[in-house]
Amino acid sequence: MEFKFSLKYLLLTIAIFLIEVLIATKLAHIFFIRAYLGDVIVVMLLYTFVKTFVKMNDEKLILWILGFSCIVEFAQYFTVAEKLGFRPGSLMYIVIGNSFSWIDILCYAAGCLLLFLGLKITQSKKKKQTIAG
Questions:
Q1: Residue 9 to residue 21: CA distance in whole angstroms
Q2: Distance (Å, rounded) from C-alpha 131 to C-alpha 133?
Q3: Per-residue pLDDT tens digits for 68-97
Q4: pLDDT tens-place string over residues 55-70
Q5: pTM for the full model?
Q6: CA separation (Å) from 115 to 8, 20, 84, 97, 130?
Q7: Count of other CB atoms within 10 angstroms of residue 95
Q8: How far apart are CA 70 and CA 64, in angstroms?
Q9: Best CA proximity match to 23, nearest among 7, 50, 8, 45
């Protein structure tokens, strides 16, 4: 792991964040997008955010993000936000969340799997381009 700023990942982070804001505000009435797609995309947001500042092994980072996401989800099961004194509607209450769901964990796993597959496809294409000349 090495600290290294990446403008490419910063721009991707901003773009994905704006998509998440769009989902939470303008597309909130579409259940599938709000309930599932947002959770799939949020792990990608975490990935690009970390990659903005740190150069590290992609597979380890994806596993770390999946673990982190599960910890946050289980914190919801144990109502950690309330126990820490955060009020409903406050930023930290929203970040930690307030309702546990196994489906959310499946969405995080699906997002991590898509990230992993996307990286493998990208690496394969780069490798073929290097070999081809």
A1: 18
A2: 5
A3: 999 999 999 999 999 999 999 898 888 888
A4: 999 999 999 999 999 9
A5: 0.90
A6: 16, 17, 32, 23, 22
A7: 10
A8: 10
A9: 45
pLDDT at 26: 95
Cα–Cα separations (whole angstroms), residue 103 to 6, 19, 35, 36, 99: 33, 21, 9, 8, 11
Residues constituting the chain: 133
CA-to-CA separations, 79 to 4, 86, 91, 98, 105, in angstroms, rounded: 36, 10, 15, 6, 16
- Integer CA distances (angstroms), 40 to 49, 54, 80, in order: 15, 22, 23
3-state secondary structure the chain: CEECCCHHHHHHHHHHHHHHHHHHHCCCCCHHHHHHHHHHHHHHHHHHHHHHHEECCHHHHHHHHHHHHHHHHHHHHCCHHHHCCCCCCCHHHHHHCCCCCHHHHHHHHHHHHHHHHHHHHHHHHHHHHHHHC
